[in-house]
Structures are given as C-alpha cells and as structure tokens.
Amino acid sequence: MKCGVGDYTALLIDKISSFTEVKTALITNNIAQGINEDYNFEIFPIVKNWNMLDVFNIQKTIKLWKPDLVHIQYPAKGYGRKIAVHFLPMILQLKKVPVVQTWHEPLRWKGCFRYLPNIFARGTLIVVEPNYIDLIPFWFQWIVKFKHLHFIPVASSIPFVSINMSELTMLRSKFDGLTHNIIAYFGFVSPAKGIEYIFQIANPEIDRIVLICELNPNNSYHKYILNIINQKPWAGKVFVTGFLNDKEVGGILSSVDAVVFPFVKGLSSRNTSFLAAKIQGSFILTTSKKQCGYNIEENVYYSYPGDITDMKKSLRLYSGKHILPQLDHSYNWDYIADKHLSIYRNLLSNISNSE
C-alpha cells in the first residue's frame, strides 16, 4: 500500500522484530500485498474499512494474541477520514491493554476534534516533530502537555544506493540526461509540496525534470501539474515515473544533478522524501523558514518558501554537486527502534511497579 506512515511502520516493526527478546505482530488492511515471508513477525491483514466493526475485530485479535502492549500509528492513508480507529486506544484501555500512539502530523483545527478520543486515552504519545507542541492549536496544547510525550525522529524509507558508471549512464540516458541536467522530485503530490514551482525554477532549454511519483488526472491538483507538463515549454521534457520500489528510487536520486523540494510552508523534520534524497548525496534545493543559504556538509541549499529568484540562482550555482553526507546517528532505523524499545520497557515497568 502506498502510504508514508505505512512505510514507516513496516520498517519500524521489521527492525524491532530483529531484537531476539521481542515478539511482534502487525494488524493491517486485508488488501496488503507484497508480504515478505522472511519477516520475523506475524501479520493479521483483517481490516476492511477501518469502521467500528473493524475496530472490534481488531480488539478481538489483540485479545487472542495477548500482547504486552499495542502501538498505533496515526494518521494513515488507509484510515481515510474514518473516526472509529480513533476510539481504539480507549477501547483497549477499558480492556487493560497498555497503548502507545505515534502522531506523525501536527493537528490542524478540524483534526483536533477527531483526535479527542485519542488524547483522553491513557498511555504514551510519540511525535516525530521536536517542536510538536508549538505546531498545534493553542487550545489543544494544554491537553497534549498532560500526556507522556516523547520525540523520536523519522528516517529515510529509501536505502542508500551505490551505482557504478555504466548504471549511471543508463539511468541518465533514460531521462535524456546525457546532454541535459536532470532535476528530480520524489514523494506524494499535493498543493503543499509546491511542485508547480519546479517548472519556474528549472530551465526547459538545459534541464529535464523527473517526477518520481504518481499523477492522477482525476485529482484537480494532479491535473494542474499534468497540464503544465503537456504544454510548452515543458512538453516532452518531463518524465513521470509512477510508483517505483525503494532501490529504483534510490538509484534515480543518486544519478540526478539536483533534487528539488519547493515546499510551500518549508521543510519539516518529518519529510522522509528529503531524507531519502539526502542519504544519496545529490544536491538538494529546498525551502525553509529557519535555515538559509548553502550548507556544504549537507549539500543542501535552503531558500525561503516562494522565493523563485533565489531558487533559480542556487540551482544553477550548485546543481551537479555530489557529496555523501555524514548523517546524524538519530537518522537511522537502529537508533529509532532502540528508542521505541526503551519507551516500551519503561511503560511496562511503570505498570508493573504500580500493580
């Protein structure tokens, strides 16, 4: 299933399951495909619609499996706007099952109401933004402060991919990149990503654009991007790859001259597409309200959101630079899994001591 939180969950549970003292299981949609038989955990693809009936079926499965705790990820594309899954922590609490929740996105005004059942359930809350409290509506901040709040960063869902010269030549020729610069974007497509700005930043005379994503003509924003692609001056100069596996994505990100993320509101620490490009070492142009200019250690140029002139200038100046970064230890799955296990142990120890 194509979902950033889904990718995160798959990588997290796979890494946690590698610890010999831990036994894990995953509850997910019944449409889950591509299950790796080598995974060291059980999989229960029992959910149909994430409605209340499914929630009770989840609770029954949990009762049969008898875990020490349950960890729920929010939000996920599969949930849609279903409210039932937000009551699951309270239902499990009534059954005396310890619950950990991860909230991957700062809540907006409307989203706060959907998360009220989550917040009133006891248990531990993990967030992936270091300043999460400051990013949510003020009236919700005081409620969240009463939770046992932990920050754990995200890491790239795409592995580092090393390519040789022949592979580099093959990949670049695929996108007309032997005689042109290749500018890439990777990730989901929504208005907040600012993808339309890429066509203003790049030069159709010397650049070719690779969009590592899917574009659905039935989506109004996607249709808008497709119209730009199919008209002059970009007609025939843009490649849309569709959905690719992680190694294919890593290979392309390693071979391009620049990866551009013109986020409308600026880069966030939860933008795993940025991290995926960063570990490949290609030059990255992105936006930020906190950082500015070129960081040579990261090989990243930070422009203020919407500053097309600065982004055009920096793209011409730094495009083609390739520097493998020395990533902070917190941006790897071993560290992230270890932090989770520490939280699990502390939670269960506290429960045991209180009994």
How does this structure look, described?
With 355 residues, this protein is of the alpha/beta class. The chain has 2 domains: 4-155 and 332-354, 3-Layer(aba) Sandwich (Rossmann fold), CATH 3.40.50.2000; 165-318, Rossmann fold, CATH 3.40.50.2000. It is 35% helix and 17% strand. It has helices at residues 4-16, 52-65, 88-94, 109-114, 116-119, 138-144, 165-174, 198-201, 220-229, 246-255, 272-278, 308-318, 333-354; strands spanning 25-29, 42-47, 70-74, 99-103, 124-127, 148-151, 181-186, 207-212, 238-240, 258-261, 284-287, 293-295, 300-303. A 7-stranded mixed β-sheet has the order 9-8-7-10-11-13-12, with helices on both faces. Strands 3-4-5-6 form a 4-stranded parallel β-sheet, sandwiched between helices. The two termini are 41 Å apart. The model has no long low-confidence stretch (mean pLDDT 91).
